[in-house]
Structures are given as C-alpha cells and as structure tokens.
C-alpha cells in the first residue's frame, strides 16, 4: 500500500501549489470577467454572467491583440536566429570556453528586467551609438519618425533581448546531449555540412527549439514593460498595456481587464496547441 501511494504523495506538494496559486486565481479571474458594473458607480460590481465583457474587450482592443501576437512572433523569430548559432557553437565548437559563454548567457538574469529595458532605451536613444551609426549611413531618414525609440523596432528589439536566454538554453541542452556519432555518420555518408545540419542536427534539436519557442513567445505576447518603456503612447501598445491600464488606471475596468486576460490566454493556448501538433515530436507531445 505504501509503495502504491508513494507517487501520489510525491505529486501532492506540486498539486497543492498549482491549486492555490494557479487554479484558484484562475477561477477568481473568470468570476471577475463575468461581472457587471453598477451604472453610475465606477468600481462597484455585482456578480452575474455578463459575457458581453468578452465581446467588448475584443471589439475595442482587437488591434492590440494583433500587435501583441505580431511583436511576440517577430521577437521569437529573431531570438531563434540569434540563439541557434550561439547554442550550436556552445555545444560543438568552443570547448573549454563553454562555461564562460553559459555564464554570459545567464548573466542578464542577475539584473532587473526593468533596468535591462531602460538600458535599451539608452542604447537606442537619438544620441546613442546605434542611432549615430544608422545616421552615418543615412538609414534613419527612411523611417517615418526618424528615430528608433518609441517605435515598433525598439519594442521588438527589447523583447528579443530580454527573452533571448529562454531560447538559447533549451536549444543548447538539446544539442549538448545529441549523439555526436549520428552527426558524424551523416558526414561519413558523404553529406555536405548543410545537408547534415538539415537532416540530422536540426531534427535532433527540435525538442529544444520547440521549448525555446514556447518559452519566448508566451511571455513576450503578454509583456507590457517593453512596449511601455520603449514604445510610444498609442501606436506600439500591446494588450498587456491595456490590461495593466484597465486594472490600475481605469475606474471600473476590472471586468474588461479580466476578459482581456482570458481572451489572450485562450488565443495563446490555441496557437501553442496547433504549433506543437504541427512541428512537435513524440518527445514533446
């Protein structure tokens, strides 16, 4: 009997934690999203089943949803383009410098997320090094605002930088434990470097690619710090900024904020399900 119950006892702390800090708040959020406000009394609600909050949230802020998914998708793509060569070099090329590079990847986590984002505002400022180089080559004159800050470029750059480690580490873990003999076998069968990478290395690293993509896209889609500090007041705001504003700045905005949160969660879950089903492997599923 004790052996039979041992696995369930080991799962019990995790289940209690998830119940208290995920399921219960989720139920509370669902309850708030269906409340109605008392007319003429902002901040006062009564409990009913007002599904119109979801319709209002979608019709009023559909553009913010699209912008959030677009920025998160772009940041995920750029993070992948930067992370895969870095992870590949760490796994196969750098040798004794591997630990140093790992520390460099993890080092940003020792600094506050907000401070890192503010630093990017300084880097991309009008008198910053990046803007000076682009001005020297007359690139900024082709941009509508003539600057980098308060544009979608700054927001995507901030998202890419802040979530890059979440892409690097899973890919590195997959490549590091890959069987090198399989890769060498592809080379022994007269495949060139690109063919070996496409048919052997990349498929072997797909669990890490999928994990890194999810770990980057999901928090980026709900982020509001980068859009708030690096973007403009209107044209670059994401749905996370709207949720934050409805919760803390708009009187009586709790139901709309909760409905926005649930809608964003549902959209991300649907996209993740489709993505994993299409590109996932048996190890991930």
From TrEMBL:
Q: Which CDD domains match?
A: TM_PBP2
Q: Which GO terms describe its cellular component?
A: plasma membrane
Q: Where in the cell is it found?
A: Cell membrane
Q: Does the keyword Membrane apply?
A: yes
Where it mainly occurs, coarsely classed, is membrane
Keywords, sorted A to Z: Cell membrane, Membrane, Transmembrane, Transmembrane helix, Transport
Which PANTHER family does the UniProt entry name for this protein?
Answer: INNER MEMBRANE ABC TRANSPORTER PERMEASE PROTEIN YDCU-RELATED, INNER MEMBRANE ABC TRANSPORTER PERMEASE PROTEIN YDCU-RELATED-RELATED
Q: What is this protein called?
A: Spermidine/putrescine transport system permease protein
Q: Which organism is it from?
A: Calidifontibacter indicus
